[in-house]
Design a protein that fits this description.
The termini are far apart. With about 110 residues, this protein is an alpha+beta fold. The chain has 4 helices and 7 strands, in the order E-E-E-E-E-E-H-E-H-H-H. It has one domain: Thrombin, subunit H. It has a 5-stranded antiparallel β-sheet.
Length: about 110
Amino acid sequence: MVAKKSQQRLGFKTGEYVVYPAHGVGVIVSIEEQEVAGLTLELFVISFEQDKLTLRVPVAKIKSVGMRKLAEEDMVTCALTTVTGRARVKRTMWSRRAQNTKPRSIRAI
């Protein structure tokens, strides 16, 4: 068995878990080149275990499809503490609260 060397493109590397909005969490199996209609494309090969799906995504389309890395553990912890905390209720008039939620550009008009 030949060991796969780790490749990296645009901050993504093989063996890394990523989030693909349409399918969920998958792992980058490899980064390969493939010829399509006479053009050579560089593709991420992503495997989704839950759906038993393998997806090939062109490197140039990563931002437009919304693929991203998983959140770091400290970011998840911070988000969970914010969500589980008590809600702060302001006891002011409804018109004042509505005025405070509008963007400044609209308030100036």
